[in-house]
Design goal:
Length: 178
């Protein structure tokens, strides 16, 4: 089976890879001491896998004119321009893209964990993030059958491990292949 990514036969940004998660479902259930952090790390792993998939797709869009054509004329113009630059300039542009996505992940984590944010009209908004662990109990033609086995609050008004997790995620999951 061809493991190359992205799949150049389809339009860019239509697929992503399943992350190599840092813990299994059985480990999530067994490690009660690190339960919240483990659930948060699964989220971080998925976010950085998405970042890496985007970076891989961007790199192929720069390198492959045929793949670029699948993205459409207007969307592909910046990549065509970048393809004309020397390799070191292309590498610098990719590094800027990587840093921008890292900053977006960090900002999103900070926004979720910031607590109440005032809105016009005497309102506030805050976020709650829960992870639900489900066991696959079977499969049918209509999809898999699932049974909820655990629910974990990663972030609410009283607690969040997310802001402190970002640097760990960057070290563990943020190694770019581009």
């Amino acid at each position: 089976m061809d493991q190359t990514f992205p799949d150049r036969s389809i339009k860019p940004f239509r697929t992503g890879r399943i992350p190599n998660y840092p813990v299994s479902g059985d480990q999530l259930l067994a490690d009660t001491e690190n339960r919240v952090q483990n659930h948060a790390d699964i989220l971080g792993c998925a976010l950085f896998q998405s970042r890496n998939d985007i970076l891989s797709t961007l790199a192929v869009l720069v390198q492959d004119e045929d793949y670029r054509a699948k993205f459409g004329k207007a969307n592909s113009e910046p990549f065509a321009a970048l393809a004309e630059l020397p390799p070191e300039s292309q590498a610098a542009a990719m590094k800027i893209a990587e840093l921008a996505m890292n900053r977006l992940i960090e900002a999103m984590v900070g926004e979720l964990a910031a607590g109440e944010r005032a809105l016009p009209g005497d309102y506030c908004v805050s976020y709650k993030l829960e992870a639900q662990l489900e066991k696959i109990t079977g499969a049918t033609a209509n999809g898999v059958k699932l049974k909820k086995v655990d629910k974990c609050t990663i972030l609410d008004a009283n607690q969040s491990v997310l802001p402190a997790s970002f640097n760990s995620w960057l070290q563990r999951f943020g190694k770019s292949s581009v």
